Amino acid sequence: MAQMSRKARTGRTFAPWVVATTLLSAAVMAGAAEPQAANGYQEKAIDWAGARRYWAFQAPKAPSRPPVRNSAWPRQPLDYFVLAKLEAKKLAPAPEADRRALIRRATFDLTGLPPTPEAVEAFLADRSPDAYAKLVEGLLASPAYGERMGSLWMPLARYGEDQAHQVGADTRFFYPNAYRYRDWVVAAFNRDLPYDRFARLQLAADKIEGVDKSDIVALGFLGLGPKYYNRNRLDVMADEWTDRVDTVTRTFLGLTVACARCHDHKYDPITQRDYYAFAGVFASTKMVNKTPDGFVDPASDQTKMRADTLHIVEDDKPTDLAVFIRGNVERPGPTAHRRFLKVLSADEPANFRQGSGRLEVADAIVDPNNPLTARVIVNRLWAHTIGQPLVNSPSNFGVFGDTPTHPELLDDLAVRFVKGGWSIKSLVREIVLSATYRQSVHNPKPAAADPANMLLWRANRRRLQIEQWRDALLAVSGTLETGGGPSQDVDAVANHKRTLYSRISRLKLNDLLRLFDYPDANVHAEKRSVTTTPLQKLFVLNNPLMLEQARLFAERVRKDAGENEADRVRRAYMLLYARQPEPAELQLGLSYLARPATTLSRWEQYAQVLLASNELLYLD
After folding, report:
1. Domain span at residue 46?
2. What is the tally of structural domains in the chain?
């Protein structure tokens, strides 16, 4: 299929290697079709050796550290790659952010919470050369770190606790103990479980020798997937298999394999045979409600299910699917033996022979020779901390996805990530300690030719995600409760747990979560939208949650600072913004507080104004 150039589609120019690989892939996918079989199935004749020359299918290679003129700027290896790009365009990075901005940024990024005034003052008072490094180490060691990372993982895993369809009071397909998988994810990040182990356990914990029974809950990655009514019908099960293929391949490989369900992939070297070979793994797997000791919970009503029941998967009868012509289950074509994707295999991939093949899929995904797995998670972690990914289509590294802005940097990080034992904390530590991360959002020499900051000549100002913002409201009011456990309604006034621990519905996502751009839990979500609507501001003006937090915040400020109004305003600013108010802000606050009260007390009204501010909502 002929394709328009990337410049024509995006208005951007790319290095010759990008154009060459794009045209190559287009030529590969336009190959002549094999003779049509009697059953109507035909598969494009793909030049597999040529297809594997596309950048994403080439194994990452550790590039040489590029030379830079400003050798005093880099603090971490990654900084050399960023600075070399900037210097090639005759650009300079922004100055380092001031220390107040830096502690607020790092604390929100690593824990999802605001820094306490005491932490801010201690950091400002510590003038030792390693003060910032010690701050970062403390944040990485905090239990709140795993909770923040959980907010990254849950939308990728399309975590949900019910189904998109419900008939009457029928809850037999719901997941009352889904939270156990969520708690496992948080704990895995906190103990820095190597990413290859993290992935293998979620796909095949029950097939790995010597696994502790506490890790079986990791199978919730698959076991919490959507279920549909009439599950005994082949066409319904085919829809469920598509969900599993899509979630696994987009999450771990950054490939849209499910696009090949009805026809060979339009852009990538992925055939229908590839898709059904992968789908066969999940056709050979069944979803079960089972305790860690192996007891199958027979309860169909969620209210009667045992408290220790897990929603997981286990092997069923091994089944090789037929290729369904145009995705129609009533038109079976040739058998697609269960195996891994051909383009990611050195030659013809071997058929799976170990039960369903889940363990073999997991091993192929985390194979150090797999060119995608490390790149994909490195890109996600970069976006999680820097605010924008290196590949702007995080779950699509295929031909129609975006190419990396810094390909050498991506490969350098991916290679060192694997050599370093797949440690997520180590990678996050390097990013947050880097000069790139520590830049100010203000650059006195802005790059007019790069308004989107693709070259990273300054830090990105970011809006807090709903989890960070709501958690900050609870933290500054002094009511935030720690710990996981069963989910609660996010907007219940009495719910003081972190937002991560809220109930996530596929049937009807909570209005607060939806209003502030939490993703649809029915599908894998590679990144979040950022919308600005009048409804968001109406929420902060009128919602009972905001009114209650304003009351609690005002009460905390009074307890902390006493009855002196100026001291209370200063304390409020430190709690919310990690800074003292400017003289004009202090005077404005005192003037406002001196006016007569209406329905709410003057301090409650003032507290609500401060809580609703953009300065709290945005991160510099």
Report:
1. 6-57
2. 4
Answer yes or no: are the C-beta atoms of 114 and 139 closer than 8 Å: no
CA angle (472, 477, 480) in 5-degree steps: 65
Are 133 and 177 within one domain?
Answer: no
118/210 same-domain check: no
Instruction: Scan for tokens 């479980």, then name that residue.
Output: 193
Beta strand ranges found along 173-249 (DSSP E): none
Measured between alpha carbons, how far is 326 from 42 in angstroms, rounded to an integer? 10
Q: How far apart are CA 148 and CA 367, in angstroms?
A: 27
Question: Could you write out the DSSP letters of every residue in 537-582?
Answer: HHHHHH-HHHHHHHHHHHHHHHHHHTT-HHHHHHHHHHHHHSSPPP
pLDDT digits (tens, 9 = 90+) for 550-563: 999 999 999 999 99
Rounded-to-integer distance, Cα 527 and Cα 514, Å? 14
CB 465 within 8 A of CB 490: no
Q: What is the pLDDT of residues 407-465, one digit of tens each?
A: 999 999 999 999 999 999 999 999 999 999 999 999 999 888 899 999 999 999 999 99
**pTM strictly above 0.70:** yes
Q: 484 in a domain, yes or no? A: yes
Verify that 486 and 504 share a domain, yes or no.
yes
Q: Report, as an integer, the average pLDDT of 126-146.
A: 98
Q: How many CB atoms lie within 10 A of CB 334?
A: 15
Nearest to 154 by CA among 494, 501, 484, 571: 501
